[in-house]
Amino acid sequence: MSRAPVSAVSDGWSGLVPSVPPARIALIGISGYGRIYLQLVRELCDRGLIKLVAAVVINREEEAQNVAELRGRGCAIHADYEEMLRQHRGGIDLCLIPTGIQWHARMTIAALQAGMTVLVEKPLAGSVADVRAIRAAERTAGRFVAVGFQDLYTAGTRWLKRRLLEGAIGRVRSIRALGLWPRPASYYTRNNWTGRLQVGGVAVMDSPLNNAFGHFASLALYFSGEGAEEVATAGGVEAELFRAHTIESFDTVVVRARAGADVALWLGFTHACREQIDPELVIEGSAGRAVWSYEKSCTIHPATGPEESHPLPASIDTRRVMLTRVLRHLTDATEPICTTAMAAPHTALIEMVQAAVPVRTFPPGLIDWMAPAGGTSPVPAVQGIEAAMQSAGRQHCLLREIGFPLSVAMTG
Which of 97, 216, 297, 324 is the most exposed place for a label (fewest CB within 10 A)? Predict the structure, then answer.
């Protein structure tokens, strides 16, 4: 069935007009992060831009109000994703998969085999092996899989990549990405996979690098790539992995690596901090520097000539842009998306980091447990972590190289 393509993309939904007939959508999961996708789907349905045909809801009692609303929209509710795929085989244009990491590969492959294209939330999968399986299924099915690294879809991000390739700051020499977002203990108990390395024998590798800050690790690899749609692979990985929370994985990470042929890469992220510092990427070139600031702007500071800047949308509009581009890609293969090829280097980086060193536990004496404003679950704040991470980033150092934590033995 053919559909008339939608109009040009812009931030928000203003760039979409109804297609004829509207794209048929399935949504797997409406709780947790799925709530964000549910809200986006509501907005699109209300504007007549899509038709929500089916949704998978495994907790109908908890989601009774949403289930009633969706049924009122003519949406079939299913308790099991395999049942949904069987019943709607060949009748769905785009399947949305905002589920836990351990489900990404099996759900994506099953949706492809049912004749659907897919938008799966980041990361693409929990292991390189699962990424390979997805990409093989994608080729066999002749359908595309888009990945929810939402910042790769925005006009500002793509403008900056284009200007870097045009030599706006000369040859890119180094990229550093820093982000500090405090998270309470309840963050790691909200589902069965957060903070886990695997669930039911399936790789998850959850961490700041693979979850909340995964977007910005992928951006660093994207800006290191030598082509417009090329994402660099990482090598020469050195890492420090720490935890303050009681988890299997880590909540604090510093990575020093090489991206592509010769870009020096530094990543520093933590959830065990007192101060919130929103993510920022600083790109140093042979003839200037560029800065990508979360929900603010991309700015180019050339060694000579005028400064250039492009705004970045708020995160909710970034997600709207992402879904807009994916919907357009249904009828226009030239519409840029984050492909599985672009997402794969991020998963490879995660595997390299996890294999580099064991996770170490911060000594209790270094941690202050704070009660968050408006909440009851405490937040661990590693003493001095904010200044240490910022200093290490500026110097492209590991924390131990700047003497942090000072004269304190780490425990395994």
Answer: 297
Query: What pTM value is reported for the model?
Result: 0.94
Structure tokens at 31: 């709780």
Q: For the stretch 45-55, what's the b/e string if a residue is b when 16 or more beta carbons lie within 10 angstroms of its beta carbon?
A: beeebbbbbbb
Q: What number of CA atoms fall less than 13 Å from residue 200's CA on the CB side?
A: 7
Question: How do residues 190-210 score in pLDDT, each as one tens digit?
Answer: 999 999 999 999 999 999 999
Query: Is the separation of the CB atoms in 58 and 34 below 8 Å?
Result: no
Report angle CA 222, 325, 213 to the nearest 5 degrees. Answer: 40
CA distance 366 to 359: 16
Mean pLDDT of 209-231: 97
> Rounded to an integer, what is the distance from CA 89 to the centroid of its chain?
28
Residues near 8 by beta carbon (within 8 Å), at least 6 away in sequence = 15
Q: Calculate the CA 312 to chain-centre distance.
A: 16
Output b/e per residue, 228-258; b: 16+ Cβ within 10 A.
eebbbbbeebebbbbbbbebebbbbbbbbbb
CA-only gyration radius of the chain, Å: 21
Task: Tell me the one-letter amino acid at 322.
Answer: M
